[in-house]
Amino acid sequence: MAPFLRFIRDFALLVTRIIVGVTLVAHGWHRWQVTGLEEQMDIIAEVGLPSAYGLAVATVAFEIIGGILLIFGLATPLVGLGMLVLNAAIILTTKADSGFYAHENGWEYNAVQAGVGLILLAFGSGRAGLDHLFIRPRDEDGVLISPAPPPRQPPPAAADDDTQPPHS
């Protein structure tokens, strides 16, 4: 049963990474090419955060680059941490008083993104991500490499007369 559950976890992480990665790239691209960095800078400056241009560029770059990395399963825990921090900051600075629902400019979408970021931070990309090529997974006990089993002892000699050397 454990191999099946591990397969399901890896498959779920793969699907989640692809969907969230595409969503991040689409949002970053939209902020960059459609609404423009100026609108992002206005939102950041309106809430009183310093360096509005730098934060706007960093947000858009994170969404586009982080989304691409998620699609391939590279640096997944780091991107998950970024998603968690970015969306928590958005909720606390711009959406806290807006209500819950996203269609009313609330924090619903950002809460979901922060939750997914936490899951990706905790579980990584799974075996279907490229992270798996660079990060050696630990077993369930947290041991990176299990110790070698003790060598097998030969079975005790039988007490047959044929196997005993002749006595003189």
TrEMBL record:
Residues 141-168 are annotated as: Disordered. Its main location: membrane. InterPro entries: DoxX, DoxX-like_oxidoreductase. It is found in: Cell membrane. GO terms for cellular component: plasma membrane. The chain crosses the membrane at residues 12-31, 43-62, 69-91, 111-130. It comes from the Bacteria. Pfam families: DoxX. Keywords: Cell membrane, Membrane, Transmembrane, Transmembrane helix. The keyword Transmembrane applies. It is a multi-pass membrane protein. Belongs to the DoxX family. This is Uncharacterized protein. It comes from Tessaracoccus flavus.
